[in-house]
Specification:
The chain contains five helices and four strands; from the N terminus they run αααβαββαβ. The longest helix has 13 residues. Helix 2 packs across helix 3. The protein has two domains: 41 residues, Winged helix-like DNA-binding domain superfamily/Winged helix DNA-binding domain (Arc Repressor Mutant, subunit A, Orthogonal Bundle); 79 residues, 2-Layer Sandwich (Alpha-Beta Plaits). With 147 residues, the protein is of the alpha+beta class. The protein is elongated.
Length: 147
């Protein structure tokens, strides 16, 4: 379904989503039209799900990043966990987990006071029975990799 040339195109797009078909064609040794067809096909079959921009959140006033473990009461369904967390605008991602805790949420907030308000909001839901928050001091992400 995806050959070595497709994987190279994916690597190029992952490194720079604004890369032109012409640039990719030169890198993989195909015509511009052939590269466009391959990208279109990978979008159609769901290998490429979208294109994004990387944002420096600190420059927008959202300089604190944290991960919070959430423990829910009883047999709270996963859909309720996702519903509770996705309604909070500071939540960047939700990971439901097997075991303890029930979920891990990725947060971005303005400052420590704002982080406290967000955590308190979860605690007031009536279904969250415990939290543990880890503040990010620094981060590293794996660069563009071949699929």
């Amino acid at each position: 379904m995806v050959d070595d040339i497709d994987q190279e195109i994916l690597r190029l797009l992952t490194a720079d989503g604004r890369r032109t078909f012409s640039e990719m064609a030169g890198a993989v040794g195909l015509s511009v039209a052939a590269v466009k067809r391959r990208v279109d096909r990978m979008r159609e079959i769901g290998v490429i799900t979208g294109f994004t921009v990387q944002v420096d959140h600190a420059k927008l006033g959202w300089g604190i990043e944290a991960f919070t473990e959430l423990r829910y009461s009883g047999a709270t369904p996963v859909s309720a966990i996702i519903g509770t967390a996705s309604a909070v605008p500071e939540v960047q991602a939700i990971y439901t987990i097997a075991g303890d805790p029930d979920a891990l949420i990725h947060l971005r907030v303005r400052d420590i006071g704002h982080l406290q308000q967000v955590i308190d909001r979860f605690r007031r839901t009536g279904t969250v029975v415990g939290t543990k928050t880890l503040m990010v001091m620094g981060s590293w992400e794996r660069g563009p990799a071949s699929p």
